[in-house]
Structure formats: C-alpha cells, structure tokens
Write a structure and sequence with these properties.
The chain has about 400 residues and is an alpha/beta fold. The N terminus is likely disordered. It is built from 16 helices and 7 strands. About 45% of the residues lie in helices and about 10% in strands. The chain has 2 domains: about 120 residues, Transcription Elongation Factor S-II, Chain A, CATH 1.20.930; about 260 residues, Uncharacterised protein PF01937, DUF89, domain 3 (Rossmann fold, 3-Layer(aba) Sandwich).
C-alpha cells in the first residue's frame, strides 16, 4: 500500500501491508495457534458448560486454526452487521485475512458456544467473568485502591503525572495477554518509546473528553481515577466513557464492569470511596456518561466508523484511545515503518486524538529513528512484550 489509504487527502505514506496470520513464527499467528487454545482451556475450566457447548468451543478452535471462516448462525441478532463487516471474507482461510478482522471475529464467535446471545439459561452470562472477578478480588486491585490515598497529598502537576502514568501502565492489566505470558506480568517500570504527554495536557482545557476504554478491573480503575481528576480540576467539563456492548477480548470493559469497579471503590475506605462517590454523582448529574456503541466490537479500523461515532469524536475537545486494540484500529493494523509520523497515519481522524498504549502487537508508528535502532539492537520482542509504552497525539489541521 502506498499513498494515502482509501484515497483520502493527506500526506503520501510508505507501503504498509495489513498484518495477517499466515507468516510462520509471527506474533499474529501465535495468537491463533498458541494463545487461543490456552484461552479456551481456561474458559472451560472456569465455566461449567455442558458437553455440547464444550464440543462447539473445540470445533471453533479447530476451524480458526486450520479451516475456513464460517458465517454466524441464521438466528444471530448481529448477523446482518457481520455480513456487512465480513463481505468477501467468509469461506476463506482464517490465516490469510487481516489479523484485526480475524481476531475480532474469533471473539465474536466465542459468544455462540457460550450461549451469550441466544435465548436460554446462558443468555447474557459473561464467559470472561471468572477472570475479571478474580482480578477485582486480587491483591493488585486492593493495592491500587489503597494507593489512591496518596493522591490528595500531591501537588496538582504531580498528581496529574501520576494519574496519567497509571492510566498508561494500567493497560498492562490485559487478561488475554497475561494468561499466556511466558513470565510474570511486567512491572509498571517499563520504557516510554514516545511521550507527548505535554501536548496532551495542553488540549485539556475544559471541553468534552471522550475516553475509549480498554480493559476492566485494574485498568478501568486507573481510568476512573484520571477521569475524576479531570472533572474535579475543570480540565474536562464532561467525560464520555465508551465501553464495549458485550464481552470482548477477555477483559475489555463493559458497562457492568465499570459499575462493578465503582462498587468496589465505594465499598472501600479513604480516597477510593470518595473518588467512587464523586464519580457516581457525576454519572447522576450527566457530567460523566457511559456509551456502548456497536462499532466498539467491530472488526474494522476507525477509518470505517459510522457517521454518528465520527460526529461524536469531531465534537470532543479530545478523544483518548486506550490500549493496544484501539491503537491497532486507529492506525489500520498495518506493518508501518515505525518511523512514519504518527500524525501522517492518523491525520484523517475527525478531531484531536491521543493514544495511551502499552505495546502488545506489531504495529507502531511515530518513533524516532534512534529509538527504533536502540530497541531493535536490544534483541527483545519490544513490540509485543508489554514492557514498552507510548503517548501520542494528533490534532488534525
């Protein structure tokens, strides 16, 4: 691919093929061949599905690892949407399709053997709930709640720095990622490969902020603490949290996950309880809203977003994209040369946008040449290890 995607005006871009799963040894291929079997095994260990549903999970695994893409059941409520999103892709081998599309569709297909969308006893039962609940009940979440007690004693600039860093590194709390990590989850002492935080703060001047969330539990706790400070300080007049309308990518936050986190906060003591109380008041007053847009679970980049979502982003003073998947959707999940300017890749976005991401997949843009040279010379999988992070900003001209 050369020029500008979709024929839209903008700077000429270097060739950048979409990431697929057909290259042996690639990260994308390992997700289907290694990560997904572990995930399904964990689901079946945690949830007492019966024999028929367990066989359906196994059949989906086999299809996605070596077969061709089947369509959704005729009675699926979202069949029409997926027929549009997947036009020309059904019946083709999974491995040759764009990784962004195939991985998203795999998570949609998991809902069928789980019975999540179909009438019956399992309707609406989150198949990932055991993992989310375990994190809420774990020592890490308790420590994060207790750490909020330190915030009132900090100077405003220091408090903002701490909260923004927590929102970035909270993205390490990705259950799908940590389930198959070869070692313990990395500490929040990793390296920033790009940091435009000063520019981000300059845009927070009292307007509406849209936060496109990523993970539940520890990450959404960090996000909520940041949102509370934005509202309390006047840096944001209103905040709209975009969440997923259904279970997705194991730990992605739904409305229920946000409410579960708020309940834990208000049931705690000290600053956690006070922060939770302020956020509940903001919800009741309309200064904080929750939006579960269907496109949040679409297998497409944000370039293909519907008009109502485009208008929402255009009206915001700043849109904050959290996490690896939102970054992939923002930059089309392509193998860009890592030094291609981030602004060139995202100049089409309808309003100012910032990304807070720990790197867990191959796509990246906007890095300095010396940074790339140093990382490549280190001999580690810096793009996918979750030990490096970035804050990047684009303000369309």
């Amino acid at each position: 691919m050369g020029g500008h995607p979709e024929g839209l005006p903008g700077p000429a871009l270097p060739p950048a093929p979409p990431i697929t799963c057909d290259e042996p040894g690639s990260f994308a291929r390992s997700v289907f061949q290694d990560r997904h079997p572990v995930l399904v095994g964990r689901i079946l260990d945690a949830v007492p599905y019966g024999p028929e549903r367990r066989r359906a999970f196994a059949a989906l695994l086999e299809e996605s690892r070596s077969g061709t893409v089947a369509g959704l059941p005729r009675e699926a409520p979202d069949r029409a949407a997926w027929e549009e999103w997947g036009e020309g892709r059904f019946g083709r081998p999974w491995a040759e399709l764009p990784f962004l599309w195939s991985e998203s569709y795999f998570y949609r297909r998991l809902l069928d053997p789980a019975g999540y969308l179909a009438p019956g006893a399992w309707h609406g039962v989150d198949l990932f709930a055991p993992f989310k609940d375990a994190e809420l009940d774990g020592p890490g979440f308790a420590a994060d709640l207790a750490a909020l007690d330190e915030l009132p004693g900090l100077a405003p600039d220091d408090r903002e720095h701490v909260l923004l860093a927590a929102a970035v590194w909270g993205n390490q709390a990705d259950l799908g990622f940590t389930m198959v990590a070869e070692a313990a989850a990395p500490e929040a002492s990793g390296t920033f490969v790009a940091d435009e935080s000063v520019r981000l703060w300059s845009l927070l001047d009292g307007g509406t902020v849209v936060v496109v969330t990523d993970n539940s539990a520890r990450e959404i706790l960090a996000d909520l603490a940041l949102v509370d400070d934005l509202l309390a300080s006047g840096r944001a007049r209103e905040v709209d949290l975009l969440v997923k309308p259904r279970p997705y990518y194991v730990s992605d936050a739904t409305t229920q996950d946000v409410l579960s986190c708020l309940r834990r906060m208000t049931a705690a003591s000290g600053e956690a309880a006070r922060t939770g109380g302020r956020l509940l008041a903001a919800l009741r007053e309309g200064r904080l809203t929750l939006t579960a847009h269907p496109f949040a679970c679409a297998p497409l980049g944000y370039r293909d977003m519907p008009d109502d979502l485009r208008e929402r982003f255009a009206a915001a003073r700043l849109t904050v994209m959290k996490g690896d998947l939102n970054y992939r959707r923002l930059v089309d999940d392509r193998l860009w040369p890592p030094t291609v300017p981030f602004a060139d890749v995202t100049t089409w976005f309808p309003g100012p946008v910032a990304t807070l991401r720990t790197l867990k997949s191959d796509t990246v843009a906007g890095l300095a040449p010396e940074t790339v040279a140093r990382l490549d010379a280190g001999g580690t999988a810096w793009r996918t290890s979750g030990t490096h992070a970035l804050i990047q900003v684009t303000v369309p001209g």
